[in-house]
Design a protein that fits this description.
The protein is about 5% helix and about 40% strand. The chain is mainly beta and about 1000 residues long. The strands form 22 sheets. Strands 69, 70, 72, 73, 74, 75, 79, 80, 81, 82 and 83 form an eleven-stranded antiparallel sheet that branches. Strands 32, 34, 35, 37, 38 and 39 form a six-stranded mixed sheet that branches. It is flat.
Length: about 1000
């Protein structure tokens, strides 16, 4: 551009009409801008410490102008980078080529041709221009890129510069991952062509060490580290000969200076033999010295005036006592001839000693030393190099300075010519036995010419050790008597070819048979009248066999009573447990048997007859009868010769009697022996006007049979309404009264439903029936294969009965829905661990696959937590027992122990695990299973029920409010009488059976009365 004075002024311009900036094209002296098309040039000047000039605009217009190539784009076109940067260039004019240059030079058609992206590793100013034939060259593009590579951290040298005795080891280290340290020892600066540090550098003279770190990639090498070392010469270290080792009796030791190194005539060698490091006052070496029996550590060092001492030389010596002091090892097997191969074991008889051995093929080897083979375990010898030759083995033990004598063993390993002995067989084979046995030993191999050479012989052990054929062989044995636990091992041997079999092993265990407990004659658990005779027996005999037993559910021990003769038992329930004991036998399992002996039947006799009564209508009547008899009789009431259904108690209640109920009443008492009929009682009912009910009774609690009643029965009284009769019309005056009545403390009965129940099956560890409609207890099966079932049941006592209450009575009611095994006894046992009820369900009594959380024969919670004892953990002593026969409902309790169980669960809810329901398990081949309805049974009335009578610390106080309202009553013809009043039972009436106790049975009677008379 003519007229521009460059000097220190910079010029920036554009050719596209846009405003120029310092990022636009910069004009350099000598540049020629060729313009061959319409162009608007804008530029301004910039000089340090001056404001930019105004922008100058020049428009160039051409006619028929030559097209211009578009200005290329450089990417990136600026910025600072810490690693090599990739540079690319583009031009929007098709087929144009880009030429570029460095350092601000304007590219020409001979400049560098751009062919693709390239890496820039140093800071550069790049200019570029595009060219195309028939086109005007493009404008100038430029990019100012700064690339600053990282400099690596310098290495560390150890030790630091200074004076050190010769030889000196120098270490070099870098913290750069994958960095490499290069060094020089001549004072020159190192590069990658010099020494690479891989191990300590040893210096013996003054040296300047220089080192720096290199790393492949965009990194500058580290700064150079320089250390100067002054190395002080030292004398050579002594040589110890021999250099330690094991020796017998004694060893002579000599010391000398090395042939190489600083070896001075006046150098002095000083040494010790006890492991101490030498000093200038230690023994001076002048001649070889002798070490005696024992362990010795010799240390030696060279000293010379004016020089540092040499390094210390050490050697360890063990000098053995030549006379044997250790036990001589032993070889196994002891027999000398074997077919095909033999496995050799050397037994070391000295603790912590090492055994070394040597082997010779058909020749005796040298005596072992600690330089020979160390015995570490059994090894096998095959055929010798010349078949038929002999192996010779010698062994010796070493420990510290002690050693044993040498022992030698010879083995002949031969080719048996194809003859082999099959392993022995045992009859009977190993297993569990209940009496002593004789085991016969044989093999299926028949030896050649047994008439000449004899039969195969067997050698046996019963303590688990391997048997061997003695040398010379003996007669062996083909049977063995066992009367206690044994691991029997046997090996067969045929002397003609010296062949032996493999060893056969079998384990024999002995356990006493579980005793049987039964009565004479056998009647099972029940049907005993007056008395019974209990006998016990066991199939295990001899060897001091005894049966020990205990009663009352107590587990027998080795100190329990010995059964010697039949046992007489009288009326009552008797539980026997017994075990068999014998010397060297495991104790038997426990046999359990229960027997119920009933008293001798006595026919019923009426002791108290019901009494005649005359009463007014609308009052309550009670008839009472009492009878003796064994067993206790049951009762039935009759009215005018017709049996009253459901009236089976000693007391007959007639509530709110009517004239139509007058007549003859009597009771019949019945037991297994006979029956007796009471005298008849005549009931006369006088007709009276029905009273007018004007009371508003206090609120009473309504019980629905399917619910669980838990409240104290309220009591209300009906107050007669005063009347005034005038002119034949009876008027009832208005009265308002608010009586307050305090209920005396009394027993409360709660009816609880089961919170969970389940069945566990001996058949399998993964069977259960968590939410099935039934559960089972007893033994089930067929064809001699009978397996146990046990039921588990629990009630959430603490959620219903108030804390601190005292339990008086407890009764469990279960309904049998299926049976095919006759009368059997089932007992309740408190469980001692928590258990679960999962989602398993079936209704056939065979169980189904347990689900998560189910109880099984093995698991408390399937399949994580297990019982301590298979079949559930429960108290062996039953809390209650009941005889169960055909379908119907059965009660357990109330018993003292059931009361104690529920009281404990109330006081300590965390220990409420419920009961296990266990059948008679004494007969291993007796079917006695019963099917009970569970808490999940679809028939609500059939589900398990627990009746609990308790006395709470605080009783409610009833405050009824009664209001009498005038009720005009006209006694004249055509006038309707007032409705008949209904009274609830009083406190005294609640004891419906007159036994002096208000319990669950009284509650059920009251509920029944309310349902029939009062309505729901």
């Amino acid at each position: 551009i003519p007229g521009i004075d460059q000097g220190t002024t910079r010029y920036f311009y554009t050719l596209d009409g846009s405003e120029p900036t310092t990022q636009s094209n910069e004009y350099f002296s000598g540049d020629v801008l060729s313009i061959n098309s319409n162009t608007t040039v804008k530029y301004f000047a910039l000089q340090q410490q001056h404001s930019p000039s105004v922008t100058v605009t020049i428009n160039y217009t051409f006619t028929n102008a030559t097209p211009m190539v578009e200005t290329p784009v450089i990417s990136p076109n600026s910025g600072s980078h810490t690693a090599p940067v990739q540079v690319s260039m583009t031009c929007n004019t098709p087929d144009a080529e880009i030429r570029f240059a460095f350092g601000g030079t304007v590219p020409t058609q001979t400049s560098l041709l751009y062919t693709g992206a390239f890496n820039l590793s140093t800071s550069s100013f790049i200019t570029a221009r595009a060219f195309k034939a028939g086109h005007t060259p493009s404008g100038l593009a430029n990019a100012d890129l700064q690339v600053e590579q990282l400099t690596l951290t310098a290495p560390s040298l150890y030790p630091n510069s200074g004076e050190y005795p010769s030889p000196l080891s120098v270490y070099m280290e870098t913290t750069i991952i994958n960095g490499k340290v290069y060094y020089t020892l001549d004072g020159t600066d190192p590069d990658q062509s010099d020494n690479l540090f891989v191990e300590p550098v040893t210096l013996t003279q003054d040296t300047t060490v220089k080192a720096r770190v290199y790393l492949d990639g965009p990194y500058n090498p580290s700064n150079i580290v320089t250390n100067n070392y002054t190395v002080i010469p030292t004398v050579g270290a002594p040589i110890i000969n021999p250099n330690g080792g094991n020796h017998s009796g004694s060893v002579e030791v000599s010391l000398s200076l090395p042939a190489k190194g600083l070896n001075l005539e006046n150098a002095i060698i000083r040494y010790t033999t006890n492991g101490a490091y030498p000093t200038q006052y230690s023994n001076e070496y002048t001649a070889p010295f002798t070490l005696g029996i024992g362990n010795h550590t010799v240390r030696a060092q060279t000293f010379y005036p004016g020089l540092s001492p040499s390094t210390v030389t050490s050697a360890n010596f063990t000098v053995y006592d030549p006379s044997p002091t250790l036990d001589t090892p032993e070889f196994f097997p002891r027999y000398n001839r074997y077919a095909d191969s033999v496995e050799v074991t050397i037994e070391n008889l000295t603790e912590d000693a090492d055994v070394y051995y040597t082997i010779g093929d058909n020749m005796a080897p040298a005596n072992p030393t600690q330089s020979d083979m160390l015995y570490t375990g059994p090894f096998t010898l095959g055929l010798t190099s010349n078949v038929g030759d002999t192996w010779f083995i010698r062994a010796k033990a070493f420990k510290g300075i002690e050693e044993s004598s040498v022992i030698q063993k010879n083995y002949e390993v031969f080719d048996p010519g194809g003859f082999a002995i099959n392993p022995p067989t045992f009859d009977p084979d190993g297993g569990l036995f209940y009496n002593p046995i004789t085991v016969d030993i044989s093999t299926t191999t028949t030896p050649p010419n047994p008439g000449i050479y004899g039969s195969i012989r067997f050698y046996n052990t019963i303590d688990g050790t391997d048997p061997f054929v003695p040398d010379p062989p003996t007669t062996g044995g083909n049977s063995i008597n066992l009367s206690g636990p044994a691991v029997l091992k046997s090996i067969g041997e045929f002397i003609q070819v010296y062949a032996t079999s493999d060893i056969t092993t079998a384990t024999y265990e002995f356990m006493c048979a579980t005793p049987t407990i039964e009565t004479q004659p056998g009647k099972g658990i029940i049907n005993h009248i007056g008395s019974a005779t209990v006998v016990m027996s066991s199939t295990t005999t001899g060897g001091g066999t005894v049966i020990r037993y205990a009663t009352g559910g107590v587990e027998p021990t080795e100190t329990s009573t010995v059964y010697t003769e039949p046992i007489e038992i009288g009326p009552g329930t008797h539980i026997f447990k017994a075990k068999t004991y014998r010397n060297n036998f495991e104790d038997s399992d426990t046999a359990v048997a229960s027997f119920i002996v009933e008293e001798t039947p006595e026919a019923p006799m009426i002791l108290t007859d019901p009494m005649d009564q005359t009463v007014d209508a609308y009052t309550d009547v009670m008839f009472t009868v009492e009878a003796s008899g064994v067993p206790n009789p049951s009762y039935a009431w009759y009215y005018n010769g017709v049996k009253l259904g459901g009236e089976n108690d000693t007391t007959l209640f007639l509530y709110n009697v009517q004239v139509a109920q007058a007549g003859e009443y009597y009771a019949v008492a019945t037991n297994d022996a006979s029956s007796a009929t009471s005298d008849s009682a005549m009931l006369v009912v006088n007709q009276v006007n029905s009273p007018t009910p004007t009371d508003t009774l206090p609120p009473t609690e309504t019980f629905t049979p399917s619910e669980t009643p838990t409240g104290t029965l309220p009591t209300a009284t009906s107050t007669p309404t005063p009347t005034d009769t005038t002119d034949g019309v009876t008027n009832t005056p208005t009265a308002s009264e608010t009586p307050t009545e305090t209920v005396e403390p009394m027993a409360t009965v709660a009816i609880l439903s089961a919170s969970q129940d389940n069945t566990i099956y001996e058949d399998s560890a993964d069977l259960s029936n968590g939410i099935g409609p039934i559960f089972n207890a007893g033994r089930n099966g067929s064809n001699g294969n009978f397996m146990l079932r046990r039921a588990l049941i629990a009630f959430d006592v603490a959620s219903t009965i108030p804390a601190g209450a005292t339990i008086n009575r407890v009764t469990l009611t279960l309904r049998v829905s299926k049976e095919n095994s006759g009368m059997n006894t089932f007992s309740l046992h408190p469980l001692q661990a928590d258990w679960g009820e999962g989602d398993s369900s079936e209704d056939q009594g065979m169980g189904t696959t347990a689900q998560t959380g189910d109880a099984t024969w093995m698991h408390r919670f399937y399949d994580t937590d297990q019982w301590t004892n298979m079949g559930a953990d429960f108290d062996a002593n039953p809390s209650a027992m009941a005889s169960v026969d055909e379908t119907g409902s059965y009660d357990w309790g109330s018993t003292t122990q059931m009361v104690a169980d529920v009281q404990s669960w109330l006081d300590n809810p965390s220990t409420n695990y419920g009961w296990a329901i266990v059948g008679d398990e004494s007969g291993a081949t007796t079917k006695n299973v019963k099917q009970f309805d569970s808490k999940d049974n679809p028939t609500e009335a059939n589900r398990p029920m627990l009746a609990v009578e308790y006395l709470s610390e605080q009783q409610p106080t009833a405050t009824p409010t009664e209001t009498a309202t005038p009720t005009p009553t006209d006694t004249m013809e055509g006038v309707t009488e007032s409705p008949t009043p209904v009274d609830t039972a009083s406190i005294e009436d609640t004891d419906t059976n007159g036994d002096g106790v208000i319990n669950e049975f009284d509650l059920l009677n009251v509920l029944k009365y309310w349902k029939q008379e009062v309505g729901p």
